[in-house]
Amino acid sequence: MSKKADTKFDLKRAFLQRQKAMSAELEVPLEFTTHPTAIGDASEANWVKMLRSFLPGRYEVGPIFALDAQGGRSEQIDLAIYDRQYSPLWFEAAGNRYVPVESMYAALEVKQEINANYLKYAAQKIESVRTLHRTSASIVDIYGTQTGPAPADRPIIGGIVALRTSWKDGVASDAGRSNITKHSGDRHLDLGLALNDVAFDYVPALTTSELLTPGLTFSEPGVQLISFAMRLFRRLQATGTALAVDLNVYEESLKSITVSDYTDIDHG
Questions:
Q1: Separation between Cα atoms, residue 116 and residue 168, nearest integer Å
Q2: Does the model's pTM come out above 0.70?
Q3: Phi, psi of 24 (to 5 degrees)
Q4: Are 89 and 99 in contact (CB under 8 A)?
Q5: How many CB atoms neighbour CB 199 within 10 A?
Q6: pLDDT tens digits, residue range 197-240?
Q7: Residue 188's Cα: distance from chain center in Å?
Q8: Phi, psi of 246 (to 5 degrees)
Q9: Sign of CA dihedral 42, 43, 49, 55
Q10: Exposure of 85 by Cβ count < 10 A (0-12 exposed, 13-18 middle, 19+ buried)?
């Protein structure tokens, strides 16, 4: 009689193996993070490649500027996550990509380290996206035409990723906690990762999502990369689908265009 098949699955091992694979995509092996000099000399981490390896294909990842229908534009976002399902990719110029803010899921700042100044800088970058004007058009699905959700119900995720932290006692220290929680409103920091230390997840007290629990939490030692990625994906799940661009609002700008004013463009 044959032995009964082993039906157990080692989930802990699977998580660690996934983290190892993500580390390879990041091009900064996690074992380097225990050696401050080695990680200090490391080349710029490939955060875009790493996130693309983890997130489902519906999400676009990369550096962008966000724009709105009123002519507003954000600061350059190092690591944006955005959706093309209900929004065309409109503009690329001089190597820069410009994406309607309605398509934005997340804006992440990339730095070599996490400290008070860089948290403040990241918060300002995120604010430049969140304060743009967002439209919300109706969408058509198998049930018919559905009214688009209010932009306030689709909060844009903001955060920071870095190779290390400059705080001696780490991101979870008193200094780290106070500098994370001091930023609120449009400057709120949702997520962060110091690759040589921990990841953090800070859910606002007034969150309306049933999938998120308010408060500031940190990853366990040794699983900071996979923890960050999973917390990020949980935030994306809680957000749902990006807003659909109201093309009627954007199209209004066409009515005021005088083509002859743009002599530097060959109109064919």
A1: 13
A2: yes
A3: -65, -40
A4: yes
A5: 26
A6: 999 999 988 888 888 899 999 999 889 999 999 999 999 999 98
A7: 13
A8: -80, 95
A9: positive
A10: exposed
